[in-house]
Automatic annotation (TrEMBL), chain A:
Belongs to the binding-protein-dependent transport system permease family. LivHM subfamily. InterPro entries: ABC_transp_permease, BCAA_transport_permease. GO terms for molecular function: transmembrane transporter activity. The chain crosses the membrane at residues 6-27, 34-54, 60-80, 92-116, 136-157, 186-210, 255-278. It is a multi-pass membrane protein. It is found in: Cell membrane. This is Branched-chain amino acid ABC transporter permease.
TrEMBL record, chain B:
Pfam families: BPD_transp_2 (PF02653). One of its GO terms (molecular function) is branched-chain amino acid transmembrane transporter activity. One of its GO terms (cellular component) is plasma membrane. The lineage of its organism: Bacteria, Bacillati, Actinomycetota, Actinomycetes, Streptosporangiales. It is found in: Cell membrane. The chain crosses the membrane at residues 38-58, 64-83, 90-109, 115-134, 141-160, 191-211, 241-263, 269-285, 313-338. This is Branched-chain amino acid ABC transporter permease. Keywords: Cell membrane, Membrane, Transmembrane, Transmembrane helix. It is a multi-pass membrane protein. The keyword Amino-acid biosynthesis does not apply. Its main location: membrane.
């Protein structure tokens, strides 16, 4: 029983990271209609930025906002310089460009920081014991940060003018444009926000998985599965699915004999296929698309 | 000519398409088949002669490289049917390559079947799989297909390892190199090259025929405007599924040839990186053209090896940047650039 | 198929220029061209056998008559190595730096028997197919004398068929899979480091001696490396009271091993055997530290050891970390004044300043290069066959950066140069060897079989 609890907590802490990255994927897709294959690598890049700041002697809670700001601006720059050229194109161009970005960022990080594994300080106290089971505070901390992030985003979209404008653009860009909204800026801001959310996921996951350029490769697969559950539109569903996937993956690896630890990676594929089959009809429109 | 809506996209995509943030893809229009180079047959004949003569004048290593170009060329030709001609993105063709390669490895290496038999078996199996998977897969809208195929590619190595009794697990399998019949007097690498060249020639001719047939034109129609095509009586589903089957078959055949040429298959040869490399090569070579896959094969074979000289991480940086630059500034790829250059030269010659 | 009506329609939709009208002949043209090409091939075939480039292999005369002397002259020897300089395993690229430093050092001292070593490094990104391509480049284009090192089991396995066919020695491969030493079908390929089985035996021996009733939890990478070590360990504890009570595997593509560790922790085993690569080894150490109710003896296999990983260990939370070692750790103050380590540090500064001297991979490269040079010196014929003869008949050859008491020995039926190791405890930022050198061959007998066709699927805990 204690073992089960421990596994669930470990699953949740990884799941929260999947959720964070899935949230970033959803944000990008809602504004640009693009699935960003480079989202994981951008998050990895943000984690390296944070690492560099920490290495320079900044305390963690000072490095965090700086990293988020850098990621926000970086995301907007990427959108402006590259993504804008393929917005509105059909499948191939956006996928190809983000895949290219993924390859490029991965190699560039390897060039700058090498492929060696680095430790990343954990912002949360290391250990906490409850009952007979013991586990990391970090697991709860990660969950807490993701929850706060969700609330902040919700508040931003619901209760600020900028949020209202962004929702208008996501709902109907043409109408928004006709009403005088500068749609281009909003789309850029969408990318920036997504990059910042991804940065949080990257910073949360770095102490767990250790920092290296390929850190997010495995995470991206799970984040995709979570985002698919949310139809790439519904942030709440994506986050819940991310958490669920973390737990399901941990438990399936242990308790489902056929899956076993070596085939855990099949779990996200099964989830995606199941969702797409069950949803039938045009995918992507189900779920509570009107959230936020 | 371009419509952002294929009838199934989420609203975000359409809407963005109408806000002015898009760009015309010049030269990618289906009907743009104007002949820009008047000496096509002569050029092709010259190329064919050069291709046949190459193994006799080049060093063995260069012959090997050319063989790899052709192998990748065949795989890319297949992927191009889906990506370039069908307008859909598959990041999972590495899986079909793996199936073809493992069929060759298991049949010739483990069961001792004569090697030429692996080719039709691999072709049939992958064609069937592609046809079966194609229909449900291509019904997925927008980016879902890319996501599903990406995740599938990620699952390939662990699955190969799981069935280790058949596949040799993570240690991989050695594949006996097809030895040339003694009457030819050819060296191994020359024989392999000619073998691959023959398959490639058939593959390219077949692809050309396919694309020129009504099925090929229907495919283009569906890519350019599914709704209009459907109104006109083209059934998008069946054409796309058939294209997917052909595409998988090409990848499977390339996989078998790959196993022969490399002489070794292992799960690490078929990671998601391979699928990414294939997509990159299609994009850089030139989606929707026949020369594109060959140029893509040249890219895959030569660029990483050359970029390596500049530094360890440089191949990745070069490939990543090239994809972005090509998509943004030359969406017709190297083939398009070649076409433009050829057009320029032809005009100048014509004038002079 | 669509009907005639739709055909016309599709045509109409697909075509926007009138110039594409006469397609029929072109279609036939393509088919004809394909057939013509095939016919051309058939015509060309009988002409084969001749090649305008490349002469016959260079062979020696005199007492070594008939042996290959490609890549070796009176004053140079050309050596090619394939390392993962890019990609996920590029941490092992450091090996090449260590090798380069030693070769530089040797060349400065006049080379080996007057021959300067020319070392060509190629990158395979840890992909077997690229390794095959690079080995062909090295052998066919650069015409190297020998392939000195391929890294990792997949690349090595991919290359060895070719090496055997071309009769090019593939010496001292940087992987511990036991098959390099046991597989008689590949005489041209030979390993170097202690096999994973030997390493597993050292751990088993230690447990049998100090914790005879230990329960063991095993975390292993699901590939040849992980399975080799796990199977070797299970073999070595057979007949003792040491038992494996829990096992979990992971894939290199998994994001993390948190779930597996949680599972293992619930077994409450006395010992955690972590058969991992650096990233996952570090994760396992971190989880072990975080789970305060479980404090097993943490055995970290040597593959996972790297300075970056050990930096992160909170020794207060993971009380005892043990690994097996066979080379000197430059970070250990014991070797502060050791002349061999002194030369190593100095040469590294001048020939490979980018490399971290404390990284075991760098020391590994330096040490294996030294072993290679020893083998070159022992060649009776300066030929490929002569090198093979030399590496297959090493007799207690000392190498000064190996731990005292550990030497290189090979012989007929024994393709494992190093089979002795010591245990070391991680303390104060370095590995401190303790106990005596364990000669696994003397204790357990020769490594019998490679775990070649070990059935998969037994991993599900």
């Amino acid at each position: 029983m204690a073992g089960l609890l421990l596994q669930i907590v470990q699953g949740l802490s990884l799941g929260a990271v999947y959720a964070g990255l899935a949230l970033a994927l959803v944000l990008v897709h809602r504004f640009n209609g693009i699935v960003n294959f480079a989202q994981g690598e951008l998050a990895m890049l943000s984690a390296y930025v944070a690492w560099q700041l920490l290495d320079a002697g900044l305390p963690f809670w000072a490095a965090l906002p700086v990293t988020l700001a850098v990621s926000l601006v970086g995301g907007m720059l990427v959108e402006r310089s590259i993504i804008r050229r393929v917005e509105g194109d059909r499948e191939l161009a956006p996928v190809a460009v983000t895949v290219g970005l993924m390859v490029f960022v991965n190699a560039a990080a390897g060039l700058v920081w090498s492929f060696a594994v680095r430790s990343f300080p954990n912002p949360f106290p290391a250990a906490l014991s409850f009952g007979s089971a013991q586990s990391g505070f970090s697991a709860l901390g990660v969950l807490g940060v993701v929850a706060v992030m969700m609330l902040l985003l919700h508040a931003f979209f619901r209760h600020t003018g900028a949020g209202l404008i962004m929702r208008a653009v996501a709902a109907d860009p043409v109408a928004a444009r006709l009403s005088g909204v500068r749609v281009g800026r909003v789309l850029g801001l969408g990318w920036g926000l997504a990059a910042a959310v991804g940065a949080i996921a990257g910073i949360l996951v770095a102490p767990l998985l250790f920092l290296e350029p390929n850190m997010m490769g495995g995470v991206l697969v799970y984040a995709f599965a979570a985002a698919v559950v949310g139809g790439f539109r519904d942030p709440v569903a994506a986050v819940v699915a991310g958490l669920g996937l973390g737990v399901a993956e941990t438990l399936a690896g242990t308790y489902v004999a056929f899956v076993g630890a070596d085939l855990k990676v099949i779990v996200p594929l099964l989830v995606i296929v199941a969702v797409l089959v069950l949803r039938r009809g045009p995918a992507g429109t189900a779920g509570t698309a009107g959230q936020w | 000519m371009r419509h952002g809506n294929d009838g199934r996209e989420g609203t975000g995509v359409n809407a963005v398409a109408q806000t002015g943030h898009r760009r015309l893809a010049v030269g990618r229009m289906a009907g743009d088949r104007r002949r820009v180079w008047p000496w096509q047959r002569t050029t092709l004949a010259a190329l064919a002669v050069a291709a046949c003569a190459a193994p006799f004048v080049l060093e063995p290593y260069r012959v090997f490289q050319l063989t790899m170009v052709l192998v990748y060329g065949i795989a890319l030709l297949g992927l191009n049917l889906v990506v370039g001609h069908g307008g859909r993105v598959s990041l999972g063709h590495g899986a079909f390559l793996a199936i073809g390669a493992y069929i060759a490895a298991i049949m010739t290496g483990r069961l001792g079947v004569p090697y030429p038999l692996a080719l039709p078996v691999a072709a049939l199996v992958t064609f069937g799989l592609g046809l079966a998977l194609g229909r449900p897969a291509l019904r997925l809208s927008g980016p879902y297909l890319a996501v599903v195929t990406f995740v599938t590619a990620a699952v390939v190595p662990p699955v190969i390892k799981r069935f280790g009794t058949v596949t040799g697990g993570s240690m991989g399998l050695s594949v006996p190199v097809p030895s040339p019949p003694s009457w030819t007097g050819l060296a191994e690498d020359q024989w392999l090259y000619l073998l691959v060249l023959a398959v490639a020639a058939v593959a390219f001719a077949a692809a050309r025929n396919l694309l020129e047939s009504r099925a090929g034109r229907a495919l283009t129609a569906v890519r350019e405007n599914p709704a209009a095509a459907e109104i006109l009586g083209v059934r998008p589903g069946s054409h796309r599924a058939l294209a997917f089957g052909w595409s998988a078959m090409y990848a499977g055949v390339a996989g078998t040839l790959y196993a022969w040429v490399v002489g070794f298959v292992s799960p690490d040869s078929f990671t998601v990186t391979l699928s990414i490399v294939l997509l990159a090569a299609v994009v850089i070579g030139g989606p929707g053209s026949l020369a594109g896959p060959l140029l893509g094969g040249v890219f895959v074979t030569f660029v990483p090896a050359a970029a390596q000289r500049a530094g360890d991480a440089i191949p990745g940086i070069v490939s990543g940047l090239l994809i972005i630059v090509v998509v943004c500034f030359a969406p017709t790829g190297l083939a398009g650039l070649l076409r433009m250059a050829a057009g320029g030269v032809a005009r100048r010659l014509g004038r002079g | 198929m669509t009907g005639g009506m739709s055909y016309g329609a599709a045509r109409a939709v697909a075509r926007s220029t009138p110039r594409g009208a006469a397609r029929g002949p072109a279609v036939r043209g393509a088919a004809v061209r394909g057939a013509a090409m095939a016919a051309a091939l058939v015509l060309v075939l009988p002409l084969g056998g001749c090649r305008l480039t490349g002469g016959p292999e260079a062979v020696a005369t005199g007492s070594c008559a008939g042996q290959q002397v490609t890549g070796i002259t009176e004053d140079t020897v050309k050596v090619g190595g394939i390392y993962p300089l890019s990609g996920p395993a590029s941490a092992y690229g450091l090996i090449a730096s260590g090798v380069r430093a030693y070769f530089g050092h040797v060349n400065d001292g006049g080379g080996v028997d007057g021959r300067k070593i020319e070392f060509l490094v190629r990158d395979d990104g840890y992909q077997p197919a690229r390794a095959v391509e690079e080995v062909r480049r090295l052998v066919e284009l650069e015409e190297v004398f020998t392939i000195f090192q391929t890294v990792g089991t997949p690349s090595t396995a991919a290359v060895r068929d070719y090496a055997g066919r071309r009769r090019v020695p593939q010496v001292f491969v940087a992987t511990g899979a036991s098959r390099w030493g046991t597989d008689g079908g590949y005489p041209w390929t030979i390993g170097y480091q202690p096999s994973y089985v030997a390493e597993a035996r050292v751990y088993a021996q230690h447990l049998k001696e100090t914790m005879p009733w230990a329960t063991v939890a095993v975390l292993y990478q699901n590939d040849d490396f992980g399975r080799d070590l796990r199977d070797g360990f299970a073999d070595a504890i057979r007949g003792s009271e040491v038992r494996i009570v829990a096992e979990q595997s992971y894939e290199v593509t998994d994001p993390g091993v948190q779930g597996q560790l949680a599972n293992l922790a619930s077994s409450g085993a006395d010992v955690l055997l972590s058969v991992t690569t650096p990233k996952f080894g570090a994760q396992a150490l971190a989880v072990d530290a975080a789970v305060t109710s479980w404090n097993p003896l943490h055995i970290l296999n040597s593959v996972a050891v790297s300075p970056a990983v050990m930096e992160t260990v909170d020794t207060g939370k993971v009380p005892e970390i043990v690994s097996a070692v066979y080379q000197k750790d430059p970070a250990n103050p014991e070797w502060e004044d050791d002349p061999a380590v002194e030369v190593y540090r100095r040469s590294l500064l001048s020939y490979a300043p980018e490399a971290d001297p404390a990284a075991p991979q760098t020391v590994f490269g330096w040490t294996v290069a030294q072993a290679f040079v020893e083998a070159l010196r022992r060649m009776e014929c300066p030929t490929r066959e002569g090198l093979l003869e030399a590496v297959r008949n090493l007799d207690d050859v000392p190498v000064d950066t190996l731990l005292p008491g550990i030497t290189l020995s090979t012989g007929p039926g024994d393709g494992f140069p190093i089979e002795s190791m010591m245990l070391a405890r991680f303390e104060e930022g370095h590995w401190a060897p303790f106990g005596k050198v364990i000669d696994t061959r003397a204790v357990f007998g020769p490594v019998r079989t490679a775990s070649e066709d070990s059935p998969a699927g037994s991993s599900a805990g």
